[in-house]
Write a structure and sequence with these properties.
- The chain is an alpha+beta fold.
- About 15% of the residues lie in helices and about 35% in strands.
- It has helices at about 30-40, 65-70, 115, 225-230, 240-255, 295-310, and strands at about 15, 75-80, 90-100, 100-110, 120, 130-140, 140-150, 165-175, 175-180, 190-200, 200-210, 215-220, 235-240, 265, 275-280, 285-290, 315.
- It has an 8-stranded mixed beta sheet with strand order 14-16-15-10-11-12-13-17. It has a 5-stranded mixed beta sheet with strand order 1-2-3-4-5, with helices on one face.
- The longest helix has 16 residues, at about 295-310.
- It starts with 12 loop residues before the first strand and ends in a 10-residue tail after the last strand.
Length: about 325
């Protein structure tokens, strides 16, 4: 979305929730602070996470960020049913003081009901920088977010190039936030492979084939020491159910694979790396190395769904396919 794109200005409450919850009762800044401290299991004993304090002034030390966001309706907190589950969610800016400087961090507090409780998500871009601005808007009759933040340029190692500002339009699809796409018309994949690890070596790899067959390999790389972190070693197989398979296909089509760069990186250390390889269309192949696993919001969600399969499938050993499942 460009700087000149129209943004719908809204009140702090949009989309009336169908299932009343405690977030609906918030009226003042003090209400918000007390609610977060009570319901969000806030990390009270950490240096960086003392008792939650709302940023009512929206402190920002970046002049270019202020200019970039001048046309956006930005509020210290907003109530909105962002994920469409019928319960109100809370978006709030937390005031942070670190080494004598003030900044703010945008958080989303999702309400998943009595069984699953409150899920806290910090909205963070690919490059650490002083600008993290969230504005609530509406697209296709549903809530959406305009997120202005710093990112490191694609093809950068994350440190040699300074972060640049980027504006993302985010909607809640496929179980999390992804970039808004008006025409998800990419071909379906015939093979999707994601490896996770650190630096040069993969810790484990999950591959999804067009016939819904799954492969899981762990401990078969040159970095065999990763076996110690996995607690298992071998090659395993499974089959994905049709609903999960279709979700992966639709998400892959939604994230515009043709627009992906070959590499992405965050500008902080000790992050994990993901390697994505996808075959799709008429012989097309996309390969992405993603240090920090934050290339795009859609790609990050794809990683989550793939990693989930590792621990939630009935995997069978390739060497001993008729044995009982590993789990």
């Amino acid at each position: 979305m460009s700087r000149s794109a129209a943004v719908t200005a809204l009140t702090s409450r949009i989309v009336v929730a169908r299932i009343p919850n405690s977030i609906d009762s918030l009226r003042t800044n003090a209400d918000v602070e007390q609610w977060v401290r009570k319901h969000a299991v806030w990390r009270k004993h950490s240096y960086f996470y003392p008792a939650f304090q709302l940023d009512t002034a929206l402190i920002n030390y970046s002049a270019d960020c202020q200019q970039y966001c001048a046309a956006l309706p930005v509020k210290s907190w907003s109530v909105v049913d962002l994920d469409g589950n019928g319960r109100s969610d809370l978006i709030a800016f937390r005031l942070r003081k670190s080494f004598g400087r003030f900044s703010h961090e945008p958080y989303i507090f999702y309400d998943y009901g009595a069984n699953d409780g409150i899920r806290t998500e910090y909205l963070q871009g690919r490059g650490a920088g002083p600008c993290e601005i969230v504005s609530v808007t509406q697209l296709d009759g549903r809530p959406a977010l305009i997120f202005v933040h710093h990112v490191t340029p694609p093809q950068s190692d994350g440190f040699s190039s300074p972060p640049v500002l980027q504006m993302d339009t985010l909607v809640h699809r496929f179980g999390d936030l992804v970039e808004y796409n008006t025409s998800p018309a990419a071909p379906r994949f015939s093979r999707l492979e994601v490896s996770f690890g650190f630096d040069c070596c993969a810790s484990f790899t999950v591959t999804v084939h067009a016939d819904r067959k799954l492969e899981y390999q762990v401990g078969y790389t040159s970095g065999s020491e990763y076996y110690l972190f996995n607690g298992e070693r071998g090659k395993f197989q499974s089959e994905l159910d049709s609903a999960q398979f279709e979700q992966l296909q639709q998400l892959f089509q939604y994230i515009k694979p043709d627009k992906l760069a070959k590499s992405y990186a965050v500008n902080w250390t000790d992050a994990g790396t993901a390697w994505l390889t996808a075959e799709y269309g008429n012989g097309k192949i996309v390969r992405v190395k993603d240090y920090g696993e934050r290339a795009t919001w859609g790609i990050s969600r794809l990683y989550e769904l793939i990693a989930y399969l590792r621990t939630h499938q009935r995997w069978y050993s390739v060497e001993h396919p008729y044995d009982v499942p590993v789990r």
